[in-house]
Amino acid sequence: MLTSSSFVRLFSELRRNISAKFPDDLSAGYVSVTGFFFLRYIVPSILSPPLFDLDVGVITDQASRNLKLISKTLQNLANLVEFGQKEQFMAVMNPFISEYQGRMKLLIDLLSVTFSQL
């Protein structure tokens, strides 16, 4: 079983290796961690709570749609990108994404920096 310290070590190594491989892309290290953490844990738990033993009761069609939109927004924030031409209807969320990118980077720092690196 992975512990929180195991995740930190994993994310630290992932971020370090990706940043070394793509030194000109300053967001690559961040996105490598969020791609793993959000895409595989956070977003699926929002979209399908029962898969993670989360009892949220009955999810109506409207609630399901809202959860999908929240997930899309959260994933774009985690990827440090705003919505573009592909999903113009979501562009209304771009100010939110822009405002919280710094906090997302701070979260990624907390998830991927071991005490030995401080």
Written overview of the protein:
With 118 residues, the protein is mainly α. It has one domain (4-110): GTPase Activation - p120gap, domain 1 (GTPase Activation - p120GAP, domain 1), CATH 1.10.506.10. Helices cover 64% and strands 0% of the residues. The protein has helices at 4-21, 28-47, 61-78, 94-112. Helix 3 crosses helix 4. The protein is flat and about 45 Å long. The mean pLDDT is 88.
Question: How many β strands by DSSP?
Answer: 0
Low-pLDDT stretches? none
User: What would the principal axes of the Cα set say about the shape?
Assistant: flat
The whole-angstrom Rg is: 16 Å
Could you spell the SSE succession in H and E letters?
HHHH
Number of helices: 4
CATH architecture: Orthogonal Bundle
Total number of distinct structural domains: 1
CATH topology: GTPase Activation - p120GAP, domain 1
> CATH homologous superfamily name?
GTPase Activation - p120gap, domain 1
Assigned CATH class: Mainly Alpha
**What about the largest sheet?**
none
Helicity level: 55-70%
Q: Kindly report how far apart the N and C termini lie.
A: 26 Å
